[in-house]
Amino acid sequence: xxxxxxxxxxxxxxxxxxxxxxxxxxxxxxxxxxxxxxxxxxxxxxxxxxxxxxxxxxxxxxxxxxxxxxxxxxxxxxxxxxxxxxxxxxxxxxxxxxxxxxxxxxxxxxxxxxxxxxxxxxxxxxxxxxxxxxxxxxxxxxxxxxxxxxxxxxxxxxxxxxxxxxxxxxxxxxxxx
Length: 177
What we know:
Helices cover 22% and strands 41% of the residues. By secondary structure, the chain is an alpha+beta fold. The protein has one domain. The chain starts with a helix and ends with a helix.
């Protein structure tokens, strides 16, 4: 009888340990997206200011604040996008396009929900060093500038982004060069 009770106790303990170990921790999983693209309709406008695409992303893989980043390019036709997130990983793959065929592709990933990397046109960047990426397609290969800017509350609406394009000195200078 003592042996049967011991076996039941051991079995119940193993079951509890397995259930506790197999449970996915609480957190937020997925990819939050935002941003806009626009063309002001002026033929002599500045690409990146008067015609642009801005993608605002937060990859979430546990911690609710996630890993945010922004890609701002002078290609005004938006682009393709796909993101996913789960326990211990999240990723986002996107691109910006122009009507003349130019394209900027990027792919980002996190394995812990607190840090991450992004690859833009084959060049890898550590998001800990900056989360705002300005991309000019006027050169081949493209020119990318990584800026250390807190993008957690970055504007996402078209009007707000257009106003920022015209008022932010760093953005203006990058695209007006």
